[in-house]
Amino acid sequence: MTAPTEPLTLPCGVTVKNRLLKGAMSEALGTHDHAPRPELPALYARWAGGGTGILLTGNVMVDARALGEPGNVVLEDERHLAEFHAWAVQGSRGGARRCGCSSTTPASRPRVDSMRAAPSPPAPCPTPEAWPAPSKPRVR
Fold first, then answer.
1. Residue 106 near residue 60 (C-beta atoms within 8 A)
2. Are 101 and 58 in contact (CB under 8 A)?
3. Are 4 and 21 in contact (CB under 8 A)?
4. Which long-range contacts (CB under 8 A, 24 or more apart) does 38-41 make?
């Protein structure tokens, strides 16, 4: 195993400058319309400049209707791309890798047309009577 301060190549092939990682946390530094406030890129520039190898972001939401808390940033369209770009650039200073963390994934995001449609019943699933009998415990 390498020292925490030595470069590390991840299984995906990306090499990070060290094994020091800033964990994900919700900074709550979004504006009222969910853009990153100027303090957010400045904060990540400071962390990146301090030598951290990987910076995991806080909650980057993909739907403003599903916020984790007030102050979350939301990337659901192109409105705030300049602010997100500044955040990415500042968080990558000094060779740091910045990884965005989302609390709501596109797969869980409700589709607008599905919210207008009548609800559909759940998929059929077997009743307990159709379940297989439990197997006998193995004795060693």
1. no
2. yes
3. no
4. 40/73, 40/87, 41/83, 41/86, 41/87, 41/89, 41/90, 41/91
Confidence of residue 122 (pLDDT cuts 50, 70, 90): low
What residues contact 5, with CB distance under 8 A and at least 6 apart? Answer: 18, 19, 20
The Cα 60–Cα 43 span in angstroms is 16
Distance between CA atoms of 23 and 66, rounded to whole angstroms? 22
Token pair 């990146």 is found at: 48
Which pTM does this prediction carry? 0.69
**pLDDT tens by residue, 77-121:** 999 999 999 999 999 988 898 887 766 555 555 555 555 555 555
Angle at which helix 81-90 crosses helix 39-49, to 10 degrees, equals 20
Which H/E stretch holds residue 5?
none
Q: Characterize the bridge pairing of strands 8-9 and 15-16.
A: antiparallel
Query: In angstroms, how far apart are the furthest CA atoms of the chain?
Result: 64
